[in-house]
């Protein structure tokens, strides 16, 4: 093993909290030499296997390294033919996957809207607009509040004739009798790369 390679191995293992004995270093060298093009990946694989195995000490000897090397070799480093799936895979996800997808989309939009300058709280008490700070609040935080708040949520119809505005924290019934349709603005809002304000 070259001096540069020896130093690299010792440095990587020391960064993870391991101390190597000389015979452990030679065992690691014999493992890494099998992967001439991907030495760093082989070292990382070995370190990950060491992390998941139960060791008696942080000082590694030849037996402990050999045990982990044999584990890493049995998990697919042999270079054989990859496993093929022969069964039918479903095209559509189940209900929990669809709910997770909707929840992740909502969180993504909430994070994007929270970073927008019009909806982020000012650092100093300066008047950004006539409306004051337009910070987005959760629906659950509306309990007991009397001042105007900005919320983001999904309109859902849980019962016939009753509409609810809901987010990840709560749902509140809303009256849409005098509501204005924002279909054009909402389409532009989600198709444009940045959020715009509309008056």
Automatic annotation (TrEMBL):
Domain of life according to the entry: Eukaryota
GO CC field: epsilon DNA polymerase complex
Gene3D superfamilies: 1.10.8.60
Domain named DNA polymerase epsilon subunit B N-terminal: residues: 4-68
Gene Ontology biological-process annotations: DNA-templated DNA replication; error-prone translesion synthesis
Entry-linked Pfam families: Dpoe2NT
GO molecular function: DNA binding
Name this protein carries in UniProt: DNA polymerase epsilon subunit B N-terminal domain-containing protein
Organism: Fraxinus pennsylvanica
């Amino acid at each position: 093993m070259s001096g540069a390679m020896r130093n690299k191995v010792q440095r990587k293992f020391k960064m993870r909290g391991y101390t190597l004995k000389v015979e452990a270093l030679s065992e690691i060298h014999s493992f890494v030499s099998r992967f001439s093009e991907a030495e760093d990946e082989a070292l990382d694989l070995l370190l990950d296997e060491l992390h998941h195995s139960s060791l008696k000490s942080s000082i590694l000897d030849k037996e402990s390294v050999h045990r982990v090397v044999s584990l890493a070799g049995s998990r697919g480093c042999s270079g054989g033919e990859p496993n093929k799936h022969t069964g039918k895979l479903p095209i559509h996800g189940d209900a929990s996957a669809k709910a997770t997808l909707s929840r992740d989309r909502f969180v993504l939009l909430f994070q994007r809207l929270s970073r927008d300058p019009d909806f982020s709280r000012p650092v100093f008490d300066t008047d950004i607009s006539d409306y004051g700070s337009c910070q987005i609040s959760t629906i659950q935080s509306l309990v007991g509040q009397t001042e105007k708040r900005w919320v983001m949520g999904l309109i859902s119809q849980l019962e016939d004739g009753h509409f609810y505005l809901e987010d990840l924290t709560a749902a509140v019934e809303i009256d849409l009798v005098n509501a204005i349709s924002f279909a054009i603005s909402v389409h532009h809002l989600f198709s444009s790369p940045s959020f715009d304000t509309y008056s």
